[in-house]
Structures are given as structure tokens and as C-alpha cells.
Design a protein that fits this description.
Layout: H1 2-20, H2 29-35, E1 40-44, E2 47-52, H3 56-65, E3 67-71, E4 76-81, H4 85-92, E5 104-111, E6 117-127, E7 130-135, H5 140-146, E8 153-156, E9 161-167, H6 171-177, E10 191-196, E11 199-204, E12 213-219, H7 223-233, E13 239-241, H8 244-253, H9 297-306, E14 311-318, E15 328-331, E16 335-346, E17 351-359, E18 370-377, E19 382-392
Parallel strand pairs: 3-13
Antiparallel strand pairs: 1-2, 3-9, 4-7, 4-8, 5-6, 6-7, 9-12, 10-11, 11-12, 14-17, 14-19, 15-16, 15-18, 16-17, 18-19
InterPro entries: GcvT/YgfZ/DmdA, GcvT/YgfZ_C, GcvT_C, GCVT_N, TrmE/GcvT-like
Pfam families: GCV_T, GCV_T_C
Binding site for substrate: 215
Amino acid sequence: MVAVAKTKSRTKLAEQAHFRTLRLPSPFQPRLEALAAQQDWYDWAGYKAPHALWDDELEYFAIRSQAALFDISPMVKYRIEGPDAEAFLNRVTLRNVTKLKPGRVHYTAWCDDEGYVLDDGTLFRFSADRFRLCCQERHLPWLLDSAIGYEVSVVEETQEVAGLALQGPTSFAVLRDAGFKGVEKLKIFDLAEFPHEKGSVTISRTGFTGDLGYELFVPVKQALSLWDRLIEGGKLHGIRPMGYTALNRARIEAGLIVANADFVTGDSAIRTDRLRMPDEIGLGFMIDPAKGHFNGRRAILDARQNKTLKHVLVGLEIEGNIPAEHAIVYHRGKREVGLVSAAIWSPTAKRNIAIASLQRPYGDTVVDDLWVEIYAMRELQYHKLMKRAKVVPRPFIKLDRRTANPPGER
């Protein structure tokens, strides 16, 4: 009986310890905690991350009219190096890595052997044989298995590298006034090293907002000094730290997709009808049939040739001003043909917009007479609204300042 009582006691203590276990702190956690008036946190890849710090509306408008600072440290990061690094990445990702020059970044994706998307992300090329792959989900076992036969090392460096996204029309001015001399030379998707303290910071002209913006990466020991440097440089340019809610609004306006939000990744899907090929989620432009073999190549090209693609990801403009998030899409108000995965009333586009996955031919060749079913709360009661929708191009907004050379100051 004593042994049983001790076992139960240890079990109870273990359960209590489990619930006391905190999510991983970001390298910028001291700065985020000091600003988190709302204390509205969520789990991002095991890290504690803010939905909003103070006011998500003002944080959004900082992206479009000032400069917004977003912690991207929880983003999964892999260091890929070695004589065969280019060949390895060309084998596992969709885009042609031989065309990616040192000092450049490109957006890419990777698939399983059946051609279903496992994830998407950005590939940074620092030199001929040194890369960084950033993405939403963790893929280390798959990457290591895929590296067999290549002279290449693959190491996850998520906890070693701190990252910040600086986005908005005054983001260049912030960097300039923070002392990053020569940053004006960076064109869209360029990257370069800049001195910081006794080391360096990698700055790329990239982002997830469709606006002028940059991403900065440093060793975690230099994280707080980088934050303080940017805040000081941005005092006259309206810099404002932000959370994910504001970023999500901006990325929807930019027509950008999120893994396991707008599509289900191939290794996490439970039902086979949730799997998607690149052409079914708007990533077909990445595929280079002229390059050598890559994961899923045969299945992807066969689906194109045989016209067996089943879905299409589209942008929708919806009448009214009530966001249609997670609304069902109908043809002629009767036949269910798809689902909205992301939707907002766009303050910049002044339109009710959405990203939706539809069953072909709807959204592909059949684009007329589409409707969405929205449930709107009115005086503590839901009311069903059927609103017309039309297929429109993505991005929903296109800002010239994103690609302007040299970058504007405001």
C-alpha cells in the first residue's frame, strides 16, 4: 500500500510539473513581455508568441504607414552546408537552386514522392556551399534521410539564431538611422552581412506582408542589442512592435499562404483528400520541368498532363463587409464547392477579401455564380448570410514600394 501511495504521489507531481512547463521563451522575450499590455499569447512551434502586444489594429496600420517589428525567432531554421548542398537542395525542393546566386533568397516548397506539398519556406544562399532553409514545420528526420548519398550536413539552428521582421514604408529609414550603412543597396530578395557589436547581422530584403520590408538574423546572444538598436533607430519613424494578428491581416492582403492554415502539409494530413499538389495551392510557378529530378516530379507532371488536379486555391472578393473566415463556398447557392481558409475586411484594399480552396472546375473554369455562407453574430444570435463572391487575382494589393530601388524613406 505504501508503494502504491508513493507511485500515485510521483504521478501527481509529474502531472503538476507537466502543466507548469512553460513554452520556450524567445530571445526577445524580455522586450516582448515588457510591451505585452494584452498578455495575449499563443504557441508557435513550441515558443511563446504574442497575438497582439497592445492593439492589433494599430499594429496593422504600423505595417502599412510606419514600420512594424515582428519576432520571427520561432520560425524553423536549418543550416545546410557542404560540397553537395546545392545538388541536395535542388533534389528536394521545387525551384531550380542552380539559379539562386550567393547573396540571394527565393521562396520555394518541397513535396513527398507522390507530389504532395510537405511545406513551403525561404531558402537563403550565403555562398556556393552554405544555405539556410526557413519554414513553418519541422522536417529534420526527412531532410537527413534525403541527404543520404550527398556530402552535406543538415543542422537545425532554430534555437541558435534570433530573427526579426521589420516591415513597412519607413523600414529602410529605420535601418539607415540604426547605422546599417549600405542597406539601401539591397534589392528585393537580396541578402548581406552587416556589422553588429563584435559580430554581424544578416539582413535580407524579404518579408511576409507584401510591403517594403527586411528580415534580420543574429546569434541569440546579440538578440536584445539588435532589438534596442532598431528601436532607437526607429524613434523618428514610428516603429512599433507587433503580434501575429496584425501580420496575418497583412499577409492575407498580400495573398500569401500559411502551412496548416491554407493547406494541410503532406506529413500531417490524416485524410487523403486534404493533400495538395503545388498547382492546387498556387505554387505551380515554382516548378522547373527542365531541371533534373526532384521529389514528386513525375507525379506533378503526370497530374498536369492527365488533367487530374482536383483543387485550386483562389482569391475571392465578397460583397458586404463581414469577413467570411472558414465560410463554405457554394455554386449557385446550392452546391458546396470549397472552403474559405483566411478572410478579412481589408483596410488597405477597402474590400472584403478571402483565400479559398475550391474543387475544380470551380474557381478554375467555372467562376460565375459563387456564394459564401457567413454566420454573423447579431444581438447574441447567429444569422446566416449568403453573399456573392467573385474570383479575383492575388495579391489583393500591390505596393510599388515593396520592390522600389532605391527603397523609399516613407
